[in-house]
């Protein structure tokens, strides 16, 4: 069953990408090939995140014994979803490649990896280390905590929508602002509050106070959680800074052509292409946080 799910996943994600590519080309004709590939990749990311977060939420809501209770959906989705990480690296590269059709591979490769090194390392690390830990080395313990990790994907659909709206130059639309609110809220719940929530539930399981948990669990667990939380706080601050920047631009009245050009320049800097070097573009490429 597990290897069947692995095989199905290897076909499903590329199939979704091709299907979205076909749909997007016919929905918004006349755009660049790079834009179609980027939007399709983001849509696949959106659906993968929905699947993962739903599995995680189901475990969180139903779990009573955070250490020993088993959920088949955890292992099944792990086998199914592991191929997504390698698909996503390829899809991201294709998006960058088609965005710069006049450049050769020798120019695109270093720029792509320089821009996306963090997400590429993440996508390599998770299948090589996270997958065997979840499937083989846990000895059937801690499905609740794996479910919490899956639930962290709850913010990714809004990250994908954010990126798609930027590709379509819809930064001043109401849906862009509403999505930004949902993005910040879901990111805070799924990627920051989830850590004290896990510690609190383990404290209830062990009948100790939450403040005693770091002394009762392995040091590696504490270091891993602290490192992940620090990274999530960094990205959350980037989300807030970007949100305030767009809010200031949208609220500022246009009093002259010069001011209008200034705003346009700010917006352009905040919405660079896949090889831009600002906080916003870095967040869009690295902020999946899977």
Would you write up a description of this structure?
The protein has 290 residues and is mainly α. The chain is 78% helix and 0% strand. It contains 13 helices and no strands. It is globular. Mean pLDDT is 84; it is low at 254-290.
Q: How would you describe the shape? A: globular
Query: Would you tell me the structural class of the helices and strands?
Result: mainly alpha
| Main sheet summary | none
Total beta strand runs = 0
Q: What gyration radius follows from the Cα positions, in whole Å?
A: 20 Å
Q: What is the gist of this entry?
A:
With 290 residues, the chain is an all-alpha fold.
Write the SSE topology.
Blueprint: H1 2-27, H2 33-62, H3 72-81, H4 83-99, H5 105-137, H6 143-151, H7 156-167, H8 174-191, H9 194-206, H10 213-216, H11 219-251, H12 257-270, H13 279-286
Question: Tags for this entry?
Answer:
290 residues, mainly alpha, globular, disordered C terminus
């Amino acid at each position: 069953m597990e290897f069947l799910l692995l095989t199905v996943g290897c076909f499903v994600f590329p199939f979704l990408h091709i299907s979205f590519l076909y749909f997007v080309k016919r929905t918004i004709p006349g755009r660049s090939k790079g834009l179609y590939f980027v939007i399709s990749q983001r849509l696949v990311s959106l659906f993968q995140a929905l699947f993962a977060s739903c599995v995680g939420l189901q475990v969180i809501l139903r779990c009573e014994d955070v250490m020993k209770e088993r959920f088949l959906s955890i292992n099944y989705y792990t086998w199914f979803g592991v191929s997504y990480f390698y698909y996503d690296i390829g899809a991201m590269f294709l998006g960058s490649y088609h965005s710069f059709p006049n450049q050769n591979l020798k120019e695109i490769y270093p720029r792509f990896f320089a821009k996306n090194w963090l997400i590429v390392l993440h996508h390599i690390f998770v299948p090589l280390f996270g997958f065997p830990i979840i499937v083989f080395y846990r000895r059937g313990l801690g499905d609740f905590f794996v479910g919490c990790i899956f639930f962290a994907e709850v913010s990714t659909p809004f990250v994908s929508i954010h990126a798609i709206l930027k590709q379509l130059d819809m930064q001043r639309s109401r849906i862009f602002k509403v999505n930004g609110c949902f993005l910040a809220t879901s990111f805070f719940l799924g990627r920051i509050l989830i850590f004290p929530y896990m510690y609190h539930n383990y404290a209830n399981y062990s009948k100790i106070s939450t403040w005693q948990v770091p002394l009762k669990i392995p040091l590696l667990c504490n270091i891993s959680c602290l490192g992940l939380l620090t990274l999530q706080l960094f990205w959350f601050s980037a989300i807030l800074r970007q949100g305030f920047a767009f809010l200031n631009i949208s609220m500022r009245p246009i009093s002259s052509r010069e001011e209008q050009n200034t705003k346009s320049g700010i917006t352009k800097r905040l919405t660079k292409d896949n090889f831009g070097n600002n906080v916003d573009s870095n967040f869009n490429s690295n902020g999946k946080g899977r």
